[in-house]
Every structure is written in C-alpha cells, then in structure tokens.
Amino acid sequence: MTCKELCEQHKAKKNGPSSRYGNGQKRCQICDIFLNWTGIFCPCCGNKLRTRPRKQDYKIKLDLKKSRNFGKFENHTD
Ligand SMILES: [Zn+2]
Ligand SMILES: [Zn+2]
Fold first, then answer.
1. Residue 26 within a domain
2. Of 5 and 62, more confident
3. Which residues lie at CB < 5 A from ion ligand 1?
C-alpha cells in the first residue's frame, strides 16, 4: 500500500475544522489525506478508509461497558 497521488483527485475541500468527518469525508492514513469518496477503500492506495461513527456516544457506551467489567472486582468505590 503506497500513495500513487491519485488521491489528490478526490481530495476533500476544507469546510471548517469540525465538518470533515461530518460531511462523509474519509481519511486515508497511508496517503495522509481527507477524501470525498463513497467507497470503503482508498481509490489511490487501497487502504481501508477511516470514518467516524455518526453517533458520538457509541464509543462512550462501549468504553463504559468495558470499564464496568474491568472495575467489577477492583473498584468498589464507583
Ligand atoms: Zn494517495
Ligand atoms: Zn490512500
């Protein structure tokens, strides 16, 4: 997986600091670029693109579940 600079053709335009993932833009870690691309894989290097889940609390819920299981036996002050 290497950057062939094809990604430049699909480069996402800057719309502000917080709107990148929100606009459905995806990040390729290999090319180090944000893409306007509907596919799962980078059209340039073939790397799996990164997206942020729409609901922010999904990860928080997961983390809570994890920490609850973790703290079950050692953290009884919680
Ligand atoms: Zn690239
Ligand atoms: Zn790429």
1. yes
2. 5
3. 3, 7, 31, 44
66 C-alpha to ligand 1 centroid (Å): 36
Ligand closest in space to the Cα of 7: 1
Q: Is residue 1 a part of any domain in this protein?
A: no
23-63 tens-digit pLDDT: 668 999 999 999 999 899 999 999 999 886 655 555 666 67
Q: Residue 52 burial (CB < 10 Å; 0-12/13-18/19+)?
A: middle
38 within some domain: yes
Q: Say whether pTM exceeds 0.70.
A: no
Output the CA 9–ligand 2 centroid distance in Å: 11
pLDDT of 50 reads 86
